From TrEMBL, chain A:
Keywords: Membrane, Transmembrane, Transmembrane helix. This is Uncharacterized protein. It comes from the Bacteria. The chain crosses the membrane at residues 21-39, 51-72. It comes from Borborobacter arsenicus.
Automatic annotation (TrEMBL), chain B:
This is histidine kinase. Residues 684-905 form the Histidine kinase domain. It is a multi-pass membrane protein. Pfam families: HATPase_c (PF02518), HisKA (PF00512). One of its GO terms (cellular component) is membrane. GO terms for molecular function: phosphorelay sensor kinase activity; transmembrane transporter activity. It comes from Borborobacter arsenicus.
Amino acid sequence: MRSRKLEPIRTKTEDRRKHEHAAFVLPVFGALLLLPPLIDLFSAAPRLAGIPVKIVYLFLVWIVLIVGAVTISSRMPGPEKKPLDLSPGDGG
Amino acid sequence: MLSANFVILTAVGYVGLLFILAYVSDVRAKRGNVGFLRSPLVYTLSISVYCTSWTFYGAVGTAARDGLEFMAIYLGPTLVFVGWWFILRKLVSISQTLRITSVADLLSSRFGKSSRLAVVVTLIATVNVTPYIALQLKAITTSIQIVSAADGSDGSGLSGLDDISLAFAVAAGMALFTVLFGTRNVDAKEQHHGVVAAIAFEAVVKLLALLAVGLFVVFGLSDGLQDIFSRAQAAGIDIYNSNSSGSRWTAILFLSATAVLCLPRQFQITVVENSNAEHLRTAGWAFPVYLLLVSLFTMPIALYGLATLPAGSNPDMFVLTLPMAAGNDALALFVFIGGFSSATSMIIVASIALSIMVSNHIVLPIALRYSNRLEDAGERGIAHLLLRSRRISIAVILFLGFLYFWLTGDSDALAPIGLISFVGVAQFLPAMMAALYWKEATVKGALAGTLVGFAAWAWTLFLPSFESTSPWIAALMVNGPWGIEALRPEALLGLTGLDPLVHSVFWSLFLNTSLLVSVSLMTRQSVMERIQASLFVDIFKRGTRIQPHFIHGSATTDDLFFVAERVLGWERAHALFEPAHLPRGAATDGLGGVSSEFIGRLERELAGSIGAASAHVLLSKVVAGDKVSLEEVMKIADETQQMIEYSHELEQKSAELRSTAQKLQETNALLHALHRQKDDFLSQVSHEVRTPMTSIRSFSEILLTDANLTDAQRERFASTIYHESMRLTKLLDEILDLSALEQGERGWVNLPIDAEPVLDRAIEVCEALARQNNIRFEVVSRARAGNVLGEADRLSQVLINIIANAIKYNNSPVPVVQIRSWIDEDHYRIEISDNGPGIPDAYRKNIFEKFVRAGSDGWGIKSGSGLGLGLNISYKIVQKLGGRLELVEGSLPGACFRLTLPLHGGERDGPDRAEQGETVAG
């Protein structure tokens, strides 16, 4: 008899943390993809449908970054978590 | 073909449209109807002020010259915006919370509201932005020139204007627009709805223009992308240009990412004009999309231009010349308007940002310092001063830009100014990152880093940009100053082989960061810096609110209101003071009714208009200058201090506990020892008691049971019983005596006595015993008198006990007991020695303990003659007399006991009788 697998419980905090980590990783990975040595891989590469592969690659990375940003932005915690509030309160 | 008149009139009409748009938006905003104006979309579009004419026209030029390098200029900001959650969100949150008005304000606020830093940053920004504005003017004049180049008419009407007048007209027009919409009022937040609306509109125009020309080139003039690339390949154009090295690509990517944070205009639009940090959520991906669309057709346009236009045409103007070459005048005009838009939006925002910095950080501090007429300024006096100075500085900045354009117009010094300016503002980056993430950074570090980085930039990059205009600079670059080759601007310390841009980026930022870090580590922060540092770095941490508030001073509410009114105007000041229920009018003693929180809030409100440093200075004039109460200082000391105190307390507690545990252990050990002693004592006593009891019992048994005893026998037995019971009584007496001594029950009062007669008496008492044992007394020397504190009976008990011991245990054939007494300094001493067997070494240490009898292992002492309590009792008595009883090395072979008692007051004996004693005691 196979033992039943326990479904991991996913808490909101855990989700949030993961999204934050993803938000951090996205620009870092983006930078790695756009910097030597990775970028040099495409310096002498062939053409793709007549277009140099490096251009295709750069735009592809760009689009991936944008899609990643859309995904993460929509999942980041909302405005209910306000930063330190020093604005005028209700007087006195 | 377009006439110059028509082009210029179109531009003027376009600017008119911008005026109307800005005006309408401002009116709408004033009515509180800001809905669309404050949407994430408009915010994102306005950020595109990043794309100036340098990128509008220049990107194609860069693509034509340096291949894909232009993409790095867009990819850098893309990375920053994609990672908005980390840097931008924090920057915007801090700026909104603390009402930051500019980069200079941000840095000055973080580094203890330092005015010096604000001035330095403002000056650096001005040096960087002025050439940039000149570049925009040049782009506008060049584009007008090109668009109307084919126009035959000249010398008449508007076309008669030369470049210089055109540029001047543009600068003047922009100054007018900026003054009108950029300085309408000094706001709580430096937000300009009209300007933002115009910038967003211009962003749409320039994007559409670029897309239109791109589509026209790719699908109108040629047969799709593939066609363009193959045509370029056929023409022998290689986009993999060898010029663009990996390090240059990296440097540009980094610089553009930095610029989107540090450029004054970017900071103004992205951070200061941001109305809601949530808008970043949209801008985080929407701005990269905008950049992607802008750069989509750059490469095709460049390649098509290179392939089709005659050699020698300026690639920077391909965007404009391609539609013109194709005869599409409408598109050319649209593109011209697009380029015009990108140039004007940059000029407008940059001059607003700079004017805020100049007025808040240079003009106002000077006015505050040197003007005592603040009181006469009237309502909003400071606000008016600021507005005036802002208007003047806008005009001055634009005039400077124009001047720069005029002086360098014919040379190519302007062309690379875009990247040069990026490196210049990148000098703010180390301080800015330190402001956001590093609490230990000090204002001295920030100042040193920024100044030295700026100097390195000026030397290695800005100066060389004049190489072609000044032969002196050209010579300097070849030979170095005063012929020092190590200082050549583009090969500092002989570092050659790098691209000049990379060279400058490396040196300036390396020096900047190292100085920031090392000076920060070597210097100390002021209290204000520390407070601001935690406020900045911990902006998202709840519960750690360290309110940066003023010390209570003796300012009245009226004074505060007066200051607020000068800056904010009566209405806003009233709105701020009213809900706080402050006792107005009556001059309360001190700020009794004004909480320091309120003063803090007031300072932030003021900072929103005039910058943190100036707000602080202004309020300091009213509030500070008073004695700081201890209580207030304690409040300011942040929770770190509390933590330190707490941990210190804990340390003390644990040390206390440790010492208590130690004491307990010692006590426990002592108790154990005492317990053992008691057991020993008991067993000893029982043993001692048992021996006489046994003999008493057995003899009395014999007496009772045996009737045949002779009288003599009976008498002997009775006498034995008598002696044994005597011994028993004596033992019990001694034990009682001992326990009384130990428990201090049998107290006596030590009185001043003369010890000499006591010694005489003791010798007399023992004389009989001595004669019995044939012992000779030798009294060697005697003190004349021994005035000590003591009790005569007790002292004689001790002396008799010792003398008797000396007699009893002496088994020498010619037994001698020597007695001497003398005065030694302030002590009276008696020594009793014999020539008996002495005390074996094993007993020397514990001879004074209970039941220790040195003779028990036999030097022929009459058995049972001692109980081993005598010396112990003597020892205790001497202790109680305040003296000492010890076993010393004497002149005779046997034992030598020395009794020492402190002298009491009175006369001392001369040394005459002590001489001999001294030698004996040796």
